[in-house]
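Model it.
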Amino acid sequence: MTDQKPPHGDRRPVAYLNEKFLNSPDARAMRILAEFLEPLAHFRREKVRDTVVFFGSARITEDGPLSEYYGAARTLARMLTEWSDQFTNNNYRFVVCSGGGPGIMEAANRGAFDAKGKTVGLNIGLPFEQYPNPYITPELSFEFHYFFMRKFWFAYLAKALVVFPGGFGTLDELMEILTLTQTQKLAKKITTVLYGSSYWNEIINFPALVKHGVISPEDLNLFQFADDPATAFELLKTGLTAYAMQLDTPETPAISRSRIP
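Modeled.
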């Protein structure tokens, strides 16, 4: 009897081209890592060193209820982008960044677009509302699956934060940054401005948190209020320039600091 070799089996794709594997629970760590590495590569290629982040509701439109906040966000983003142009020298500084969707996010990207500047959109797939707006710089438009990776990129590059009226998502994002600042987990100073004092003081009773002892009185210094674009711009500009020496380091600071030397 003559020995016969069995026919060759079908060649399987290498793991990094195996779509079934990449979408499986076993590859979740790779998907998470990809949502870190892809934006990092783009930020380096586009020479974006740091950002000013705008948070706010996706439901506030240019001509609907609370439309004055849409206009204010657009104006403020334009002012910041025009001002930040003086710092552009091989890198783009204080680039306006939003969650990439409609509403206040669109207004922020639109204002930067009006000023002919780069602008970042960190979009996330949701059942409703969230589609990338058309004003984001195409090379800086990202789509995330994991909320925590999106939040990482908000915090990692941010040198300042301005928070317009919003709902659950905005409150979540605001409290995340305030908690990181309060607990000194940010290895940098972030200037935080809450835009619309009447709204925020109605939604959150900040003094009551002090009264009941769940935050310290000095924690109220972690943020400031503004009610018009000019005031917000001055607060942000003052905060950013006060830390100019720190901001001129060649590398973006790490998001967190350890108690271990």
